[in-house]
Write a structure and sequence with these properties.
Elements (H helix, E strand, L loop, with lengths): L1 E12 L2 E12 L3 E5 L6 H9 L6 E6 L2 E2 L5 H7 L1 E3 L12 H12 L14 H13 L15 H13 L5 E5 L7 H17 L3 E5 L3 H7 L2 E6 L2 E6 L1 H5 L2 H8 L5
Parallel strand pairs: 3-8, 3-9, 6-7, 7-8
Antiparallel strand pairs: 1-2, 1-4, 4-5, 9-10
Helix pairs in contact: 3-4, 3-5, 5-6
């Protein structure tokens, strides 16, 4: 069953067809890798689905409802959340405060974050549990600006996860970290999303990460979908290996 479906989704920037009449589906419970060279349209597609960009044409259906015209906040309430390639944290707040802010935002109470804190102990307890799931509980009292890049990546995903999404977009969750850290980050992230039956779409350039952690791979090229299939099918897809990978991925 499709959790998300776009039909002829389109976005132009001048003469550039960033997303060119794209039909894109995501099934319930999948971990989908979205790959493509820089400028292929991956981030633009995710921005359209998450509401950060208005489409020039086409339709977005999520959980059977048309969300094409809905603002970002309504899509978050419906169950769509995302992390960002460039981690956007509140560096002067603790890790616990960053996650709590996401929970208060989910509940529509961000303006009263600290004045309500004492009366909403359950929020802080939930925030600590989220940090525990991502292996960050020992850093809960540290300022976000003082933790390592890999931990920042995990915190960014934890903040998006705290919105309790049904569909979670992860924009390059392993960029800017060492090869050793990439595996540990993805082990944690995929364990959390799979154990809570969250559907995830991961924009990723590292093919080792893509082939190891995804159920299905969608390859984009020049604003269109070049191919979609299991990791084994994509390995054997000549158009993908020629255009994006260079040689079949072992």
């Amino acid at each position: 069953m499709n959790l998300l479906q776009t039909t002829k989704l389109t976005k132009y920037f001048g003469d550039t067809h960033a997303v060119d009449s794209v039909d894109f589906t995501v099934g319930e419970g999948e971990v989908v890798a979205l790959i493509g060279s820089n400028g292929a349209g991956k981030t633009s597609l995710v921005n359209l689905i998450s509401g950060l960009l208005p489409p020039d044409g086409g339709r977005i259906v999520f959980r059977g409802a048309d969300v094409t015209e809905q603002p970002v906040y309504d899509r978050i309430k419906a169950g769509i959340a995302r992390s960002f390639q460039l981690v956007n944290l509140f560096d002067q707040l603790t890790l616990l405060d960053n996650v709590a802010l996401s929970i208060f935002s989910r509940q529509g109470m961000t303006r009263k974050l600290f004045s309500l804190a004492d009366r909403h102990r359950s929020v802080w307890e939930e925030a600590f549990e989220v940090l525990r799931q991502f292996g960050l509980e020992s850093k809960a009292a540290l300022l976000a600006g003082g933790i390592a890049q890999g931990e920042r990546k995990l915190l960014d995903v934890a903040i998006a996860y705290a919105l309790r999404p049904r569909l979670l977009f992860l924009d390059e969750p392993t960029s800017g970290v060492s090869t050793r850290e990439k595996a540990s980050i993805m082990d944690v992230v995929t364990s959390v999303v799979r154990s809570h039956n969250i559907t995830a779409v991961v924009i990723e350039h590292d093919m080792d990460v893509v082939f190891k952690y995804s159920d299905r791979i969608v390859a984009m090229h020049q604003g269109t979908i070049l191919a979609s299939g299991t990791p084994d099918e994509i390995r054997r897809n000549e158009a993908v290996t020629t255009t994006l990978i260079g040689s079949p991925h072992a």
